[in-house]
Design a protein that fits this description.
Largest sheet: 2 strands, antiparallel
Number of domains: 2
Strand content: 5-15%
Strand order of the largest sheet: 1-2
CATH architecture of the largest domain: 2-Layer Sandwich
CATH class of the largest domain: Alpha Beta
CATH topology of the largest domain: Erythroid Transcription Factor GATA-1, Chain A
Structural class: mainly alpha
Radius of gyration: 23 Å
Number of helices: 2
Helix content: 40-55%
Order of helices and strands: EEHH
Number of strands: 2
Distance between the termini: 59 Å
Length: 79
């Protein structure tokens, strides 16, 4: 059996990584605590402000996607 001792990122309990069904956490409770932090936005990833050019490209891509979806729906409605 493999042994890799690690600390749980939530409770910092040391456990064998290969024995846990909830990797990288030591237990279901710690996994759910982590999920709760993401869902309540307690965690945040750093973001950079978009440049004007990037915003224009994004808007154009979104508009193209919406147009494609609209065309597909019109095509399905005709059949």
């Amino acid at each position: 059996m493999k042994i890799l001792k690690v600390k749980c990122p939530i409770c910092e309990t040391q456990f064998n990584y290969h024995d846990s069904s909830f990797r990288p956490f030591c237990s279901e409770r710690c996994r759910e605590v982590d999920l709760g932090k993401w869902l309540t936005e307690s965690y945040a990833l750093p973001a950079q402000k978009m440049t004007e050019d990037e915003a224009e490209v994004l808007e154009r891509l979104m508009e193209e996607k919406l147009n494609e979806e609209s065309s597909e729906e019109d095509s399905e409605d005709r059949h």
